[in-house]
Each structure stands twice: as C-alpha cells, then as structure tokens.
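Example for reference:
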Amino acid sequence: MKIQRDFHPRRGRDRIALAIVVAALGVVPTEAAADVKVPALFGPHMVLQREQKDRVWGWAEPGEEIKVTIADQSKTAKAGEDGSWHVMLDPMKAGGPHTLTIQGKNTLTFDDVLVGEVWICSGQSNMGMNVGGSKDADLEILAAKYPRIRLISVPNRGTQEPQKDFNGKWARCSPETIGDFSAVGYYFGRQLYKTLGVPIGLIDDAWGGSACEAWIRRDLLAADPRYAALLKRWEAIEKEVEHTEKKAESKPAVKKGQRRPPSRAQMLSGNARPANIYNGVLKPTIGYGIRGVIWYQGESNSGRAYQYRELFPLMIKSWRDEWGQGDFPFYWVQLADFMAESKAPQESGWAELREAQTMTMSRLPKTGQAVIIDVGEGKDIHPKNKQDVGMRLARWALARDYGINVAYQSPTFKSMERQGDKVIVTFDHVGHGLRPFDVQEVIGFTVAGSDKKFVEAKAKLVGRDKVEVHAEGVSEPVAVRYAWANNPVCNLYSNEGLPATPFRTDDWPGVTIKNDH
C-alpha cells in the first residue's frame, strides 16, 4: 500500500476524527465550497478585444449561478456538471478603464480593464527574444512609457495533457515591465498604438527552439499520413524512455554522486514533441477574444522545409478552427539571412523554408509575410534589429485590418519571359517601383539552363516592375532564382523600402525533399 509522503499516522487519525465530527454537525469546511475562478487571462489591466463578442470563462461549483458585469452590461451563466461556465460579452467600443465583476458564491473584481486591440505574439526564440536583448535596448526601455499597452506572457510548458490555465498576469507597459517582453511583439504593438490611438493587448507565448508540430494537436497530425514518419519517430522515443524509466525503477537506489537516466519529464516535456506546446501553452488561451496572431518561427523546421509546406498551413487552420472567430489575421516573419554570406549559387534548406512560408499566403486567406532578408546577422541566429521586424508586421495589420493606406507587402515574383539569352522577370506589389540598394547594379539573381546548374547573373531594372537577367555561358536560360541561399547577397527593394521576396521559378527537387521526420 502506498502512503503519501506527507502522511503521518497520528495526524491521519486526527483528520478522520475531525471529518466525522464535521459531518455529524452538518458543517462544511469553507475550502470545500469551490470559489468562482477564472484563468490568468482575466485580471487587472487586461485588454478585451473591441467590436466583437468576447468570451469570459472560468470554473465554479456545478450548478452555481454566475453573473459577469462590465460597463453597462451583465451576463449570466450556470456552471455545468464539470464546473465550467462561460458568457459572451456584447461588443464594446475601444476605451476604458472599466471594472469587470464576476460574481457567484464569491466575487472577483478586476479594475483597470481596457477595450482595444489584442494580438497573440507566438513562435520560437526570435519572437521570444526580449526588448532587453534587442538593438538600442537601453533607449527603448527608457522610452517605454505606454500605460495603455498591456502585456502578458505565457510560461513554457510542454505536455501531452491539455492545460486550462497558466501562471501569469497582465501588466502596464513601462520601463519597469518591458525589458523581459517580446521585442517583436512590443515594436509591433507600439506601432499599432501610435497609429490607431486605442489600447493594445499583447499575449506573448513564444518558446525558443520550438518546432511547428509542437504547436499542433496530435490527433490532427495522426490523421494525415504525411506525418506518419514524424510520429513514428516520437513514438519510438516515448517507448524508449518508458523502458528506461522502468529499468531505473528496478535498480537499487542511486548512490551519492551518481545520476539516474534522464526522466520522462526531461526528455518528453520539451518544445519539439508533437502537441506539447499546443497543450501546455496555447490551449489555455484558446477562445480569448483577439484580433489576430503574429508569428516568427521556422528555424527549427528548416531541415524539413517541404514538409512545412503542409504543416504550417495545418497549424494556422487548426488554431482558427478552435478559436471559433473565423479566419482571423495571421502574419508571420520570413526567415532572416543567416550563416556565411553566399554570392555564389547555393542549395539551401533555409531558402526552401522561406519558399514554404511564401506559399502559405496563397493557401490561406488573411495571411501575410514580413520579409526580412536584409535584417539578419550571419554570425547570430538572433539578429538584434527587431524594430524593423515589428514595423513590417505592423504594416500588414495596419493596411489589411485597420484600413490605413501604407505599403505592406514586399515585391513578389509574378512571371518570367525569355528573350534570347535574357530573361525578363516581372514583379507584383512593387509600390512606386523597384530600386537597387547601395549600388546601381541589381544583385542576387542566378540563372540556369536545362542542365540545372545555376550561375551568378547580371541584372538591371528595365521598368518599374521588371528586371532583366542574363549570365555568360547560359545561352538558353530556363530558370531564375533570387536571394536563394542561407545568407544571400541581394539588394532589390520597392521604393517604399520593402525588400523583394526570395523566390525561384523552377520546381526542381530541393535538399529537404526527402526529410519527413
């Protein structure tokens, strides 16, 4: 028979005796009555999404009547058999502060509640990188005096069990609170605030090094044969760990100075196991009223770029389905330039991942990509210039969701036309025209003939949206690539300052095509 670690025989008898007396007198200890509770998303300084119905939820005693009040509206609900309840608030205009009151057998009162624009800031370490680690951090922190921008962070927790809550709380943006918050998230939110003049709520749930599949429900992955090899690999790891732990339990106690094999928690509670982050980080936030999501991830999947073509859209669609808000905006950051610079043609998993990201825009509505092929640092996978990243994401939101007339999409490949030994490449989304940066020559193009061997090309502008490309020795070019490398040397922009999107015109098999696990 197992005995709890903190059980004491005498104390146990005393507790049993007390329980008998309490039952006889008909007295119920106060802790036995379940207080009304809500997740960490609801609290002082929170921001509710304006101009839409917002869900407020929590837990209480089964059958308990709950009343939720804010501004001039009250909503009621009855806790179900499992104790859960929720209400839907009527749409509210931007403003505040308001007081949110949740009343059952006890009363929760949250002051300084604002109504404005709420965005999820998600992804891996380049989204998680904080303001304190970004460019000009000292100056940025000193100037972060925006009390109507509100911040909350979700701790990293990897598990296969869906979580209902997390440990966190909302805070006003200030020099004292901003240093540890997502830099990309803050610079994005700050631009929205300065442009729109309404309260901004930012929810940071990024986890450094995370793989895309960790953000997706496991049953969705299991239902698609394209992820069979990936799941099979993880199932083997799970069985191996379980076997190792059973062996460890049957061995004598570990002597001082020795170490047991890594535990299940150490090996399987990380940021790559399918569904781990979905369950431990994302799940507690699903259903909270938001405008949309900004995302910066892909480095951890760059070895499986072809798989990402399907995996990434699956993730976005699954989030939208579960949130129940329709196709909310989802904007991401394309991978930056990284590793050694390459002016010569180069096969690249990073280039293929960027391609997969670009493809997602044509797969799903209300999606967009901030191109930052000019912002990276070859020696550092975490470039410090997060200001430009946040601003380029903000352009998408301002233009697409708030009706602001600003340039937002980088020039993208539209078509190619062969003229003898030259190719004319036409671009979409060029704004007021294309321009090369720094020098007159357009840099970053390569061409190949039917032999599929790419060589560096010479290029020049031949119109506001056209580039002429040719290379010595390639008399019959059949394919063109631009900025196709881990860290390409390239310089084509729109006149609005947005870098051209890396692309290729061929569909020849890449270096990651066979990687599926």
User: Anything to note?
Assistant: The chain is about 25% helix and 25% strand. The CA atoms of residues 344 and 456 lie 6 Å apart. The chain has a mean pLDDT of 92. The longest helix spans residues 228-250.
